[in-house]
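User: I'll paste a sequence; please echo it back and then give the predicted structure.

Assistant: Echoing your sequence first, then the prediction.
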Amino acid sequence: MKKRPLACVILTAGVGKRMKSATPKVMHEIAGQPMIRWLLQSVEELSPEKIIVVTAPDAISVAQTVKPHLTVVQQKALGTADAVKAALPLIEGFTGDVLVLLGDMPLLSAAMMQSLIETRDQADTGIAVLGVEYKSPPAFGRLVLNPDKTLNRIVEDKDASAEERQIKLCNTGAFCIDGAKLAGWLAKIENTNAQNEFYITDLPAIAARDGSKTRVCLLGDAEEVLGVNSRADLAIVELAMQKRLRKRAMENGATLHDPDTVFFAWDTKIGRDVVIGPNVVFGPGVIIADGVTILAFCHIEGARIDTGCTIGPFARLRPGTHLWPKVKIGNFVEIKNANLHEGVKANHLAYIGDADIGAGTNFSCGAITVNYDGFDKHRTIIGENTMIGSNVSLVAPVTIGHGAFIAAGSTITRDVAPDALAVERADVKQIEGWASSYRKKKSVK
């Protein structure tokens, strides 16, 4: 059968009262990106002619996030059918398949959407509904079947009888509908129900009266249609997404010592033979090359780490960090907006911000770049094979030449020449016998 044109309407205008949030529900993040972006990425794999996102009147952030896709506003929350009606002007004259999805189901795969479309391909089928079976059904609409296994009607949980609530087969909210007939069918939906809303779930019964069958596409993995209606739901979906991301990382050649404690962002890129210890968190924008070791309790965001680096434990890499090959970053080291070239070592208790450090340099315990003057950030430039001693403060802007040695405890406010020794310390003053006299004085009652 020739593939029909495809359009997709995504419903995001629900109020989401249980989220108790000023943020639109679909803008809450899963693995570091809004959940609507996850669904859009899956829909985009199908290459539809149009993707239309139906939003609430004040959901400006949703419209911005889904660009360049089209958006339309549902002015009043009058139900799912009314939301689809809002999109009709943008698909006027469209006669292909119209995929209708809920924006709060970020785990739904492109493969499952394709199965739903193929179910609609069967003869005399005007609608395909994505269904799932539960041993103990939640408060979802029930799919009431005809003897030939086509769908007779969908009964919302609040409107269902005690007998209908015993049905295990439930509606997920995903539909594939004949675009040529969609507008006419929607016009026949009434709001005579417990919620006084216009339900898209009334379409199968209306289509049947028009001589069109509705078929059920059975979903094998109920996890794909996990929806988000509360903060607890958000946590459940986050966990499900993290399991997918962890599995992908391991399938691509990474070792995770304790997978359940590693958290990835949506765009984390992990190379082969990377070893990741327990309790490591990746924020957005991280690229890890092959052969990197990341020890326990590290937080990495917006950073690029090249081949052969060792990070942690307890290290923090902030946005703008680039570690060149074979860099070693140890415990309680923080790096921000800095380039550390090949073989640089900062093994413990250091801060490197807004800096460029040459290859082979050692940045010792307690050393810091003083990059902020209260108004502006300034850069520190350190040459190759330099020695930055313990408890050194480099007050930016400052340049340390190749091969220089900065003595421990120094505060450097001027440039240091290549191969020079820089020492900035006050003379030691000693008072002979002071300590014993002090102890004697304090012991007198």
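The longest strand covers residues 328-340. Helices lie at 35-44, 60-65, 80-87, 110-120, 179-187, 203-209, 231-251, 434-443.
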